[in-house]
Automatic annotation (TrEMBL):
This is Cell division cycle protein 27 homolog B isoform X2. TPR repeats lie at residues 101-134, 461-494, 529-562, 563-596, 631-664. SUPFAM superfamilies: TPR-like. Keywords: Cell cycle, Cell division, Repeat, TPR repeat. GO terms for biological process: cell division. The gene is LOC107951913. It comes from the Eukaryota. InterPro entries: TPR-like_helical_dom_sf, TPR_2, TPR_rpt.
Amino acid sequence: MEALLVNYVEKSLEQYMRRNAVFLCERLYAEFPSEVNLQLLARCYLNNNQPHSAYYILKGMQMAQSRYLFAIACLEMDLFCEAEAALLPVKDLCAEVPNGAAVQYLLGIIYRDTDRKNKSIEHFRKTLSIDPMFWAAYEQLCMLGEAEEAAVCFGDATVPCVQEHYLGNASSCLQIADTDHSWDSSQRFGLEYLSRSDLKQREGNNIRVMCENNHGGPSLTGAVRQRKTSCCSTSFLSTPSPVPTQIRGSLFFDSGLRRSARLAVGHRSLNTSQGSENKAKSLHASTKLSSETCSSTFCQGKLMETYEVAVSEFGATSSSLSSTTDVKSIQHEIENTKLSSFISDSATIKSGISNTMKLLRTLGEGYRHLCMFRCKEALNVYQKLSSKQYNTGWILSQVGKAYFELVDYLNADYAFSLARQISPYNLEEMDVYSTVLYHLKQDMKLKYLAQEMILVDRFAPQTWCAIGNCYSLQKDHESALKSFQRAVQLNSRFAYAHTLSGHEYVIMEDYGKGVECYQTSLHVDARHYNSWYGLGMIYLCQEKFEFAEHHFRQAYQINPLSSVIMYYLGTTLEALKRSEEALEMMEKAIVIDNKNPLPKYSKAKLLVTLGKLNEALEILEELKECTPRESCIYALMGEIYKRNKKYDKAMLHFGIALDLKPSIVDVAKIEAAIEKLIIPDEMEESL
């Protein structure tokens, strides 16, 4: 009964019939209470989005797997201290320890979310040292700004390590006789799935598995055979943990996890006339079972038809194999044959690993450049990918984000549109896409995007960020703010939602709450430069220039290639009367983005302040060609001509500036300058 229930629970989980899995597993644990069955129940709860249930049933459990699952439940509930306590006994992990990489990764997440950055980085690096293909750890290091070059993490030197992982796991099913290394094939939630029967074996219990054929034939029993434990099956939490075994049927031999429960139906028959002594010496064989009985009762997971192959390859007859020695002899020959075949494929395997690491190197280097805001380099790296990889939703979304950071909104729109066509179900980075459309003032396109995202997942924070941007573009700032706050409610660690809330408060001139939102965003992600920039803008508006400089510099340190940040930092330095520093910053901004007119205009103003009128005039003439309808350009040119005593040209440019309908404040300044043309400065001073 226990084996039957376990089989159906596993089957339900594999088929995503989560509610059925929970119900059956609750019956299993009620009938056969053991910590291993409790672990399976916890897995069912976690699969069914019931982390609180898993938390309460696992609290206080000491087995390695129990503590791992308990930590998973704690993380789902943001109980970081308890999750850390469950995982902390992990010491001196190495590549051979099951789930060593996963445990280190979880510890890295815990330390990241509890503001212990250095320890977080340490554990993410340990994750990669254990398993170089653990992409999520490298991704976290990139986001923290602490990733090494991808050539180091995914270089040729890592191929032997990956090969050892792969060959170790693959060859586990080829181990002879009593050795079992097959923990990997039964992992769930990144940890080894421990056999319930073997737990009882570890406790010294002999289990008799009773099975009866469909015709009411005799029941056959088999004693559990003690097996050796490999180093790969060692508990990673310093707690003795059971090793997967196969004792669910009376014909299971010591041949590794998930071996077939049958030699072949009809290939063997039990000689019922043999005495009890002969039965004790020989392995028990089952009477004919229907395929339904076999699959439902014994055959858990993917069964390897080991013994059917034995019959076909080595000419075993259907008469009888009464001797354990004969069976083991055939097993040895089978395993040796498979091992030889496996070794012959090792070159192919190594080549596949090399190609995989090469792909990860390219992806990793592109992603690292993007996280360091070296967007042009990231785009160049992504261009090296094959068309199969490049034309995927994730890559195109990263390309769109790179163009967004470069303030190239048209190309960003194009890349994100392609990503949507290829992966319309993927919402990652779609919040950024909605901001792209906001800047392009593509109202209808933004509305359509928001509606599509609602259909995909109305409970995703990205969806509500898109909705908020849609309202903000329509000047409905109250509704926009509610949408951004809804995104925060859905995921309090979604930094961009906090930042967008801050932007909306600033538009509404509620600077106090804007500061709170930006600070919350930085608490979640200290490298979210948009929030440093937002705080700088608030202090600049409040004319708190020293505070503004500090926050703009923080943003600049994180993203040193943003012409927008450089411009506002230069503007702040200009307000602080540090004209030389401001001019240097404006020149850097122009080099980074020659198409951005703001730093060019500010540079011209600074040159006027420094008395370099001709240089300033050259820049303004260039700007006039690019942006002919900006009144401030003509007003500044009029001021320069006035200082050069070219009053006719000064009056002409002041007049053009007024015709372009500047703001009320600028109108007053221009009219005052015109009055001074009529009454020259010298006369004004004499008066």
